[in-house]
Amino acid sequence: MLGGATAAALGWGWFEAGWVRLRELELELPGLPPELDGLRIAHLSDFHLGVPSRGTHAVERAVDWTAGRRPDLVAITGDLLTHPRGERRLRELVGRLPAPAFAVLGNHDVAISRDPQARASDLRELEPATLLRDDGVLLELRGKRVWIAGTHPRLIVRGETKLDPNTLARDADLRILLCHYPRVFDRLEPGNFDLVLAGHMHDGQITVPYPGGKLRLAHPGAHYQRGVYRSPAGVLHVSPGLGTTFVPFRFAARPEATELVLRSSM
Questions:
Q1: Residues of the chain with pLDDT under 50
Q2: Domains with residue ranges and CATH for the chain
């Protein structure tokens, strides 16, 4: 009986790793110009390509969904590859995303990880997407200036900040920061960025639900696990991500692609 229960649990975890949630989320941003009300941003994260996982199916579904919805811009917040052998597939998928698309690297991309499968890829470009590495791009959308900045994953190593993320801020009507790590939010000064997009957490990936919540076995003490957070520094959205790490399973932590619909404060 124990063997059957174990097999069923593993089977479910394998299934859930590919059972992607495709979600639209309205997100109020204080100070958002009325011209940018309704701006749509597809937030994707944590592909972890290059290793066997149903997460690859989740990534493919997410890319197809995003391509069909044609948002105003696409943001990918790191851990694109766990192993360099996934690079060819990554480039095929990114090539299907609508422009403009922006990405940053994550810790797996440069093998800052305890995951024994992780091998450094350290991509230098990701055309047609723009790969941001401690720099940014100024866009004009709906007649307004939108600044998109992105950090290199070596921004934070072993809890120490190697670069002050506030130095990436620029004057614009909407300022967005892409960083793989949600904890960058605590290092931001008010007034520098309006929206921060991050990943890394996988919503725990392997969790134990209980009434009113769940125990996340990955990063159990982390403050920013998934969803929307607000502080004087701005608004943070943490993606549950699409792939898997260490083991090819998810339990009560479905992968997700999110389309953020920005709304002006009433």
A1: none
A2: 2-264 (3.60.21.10)
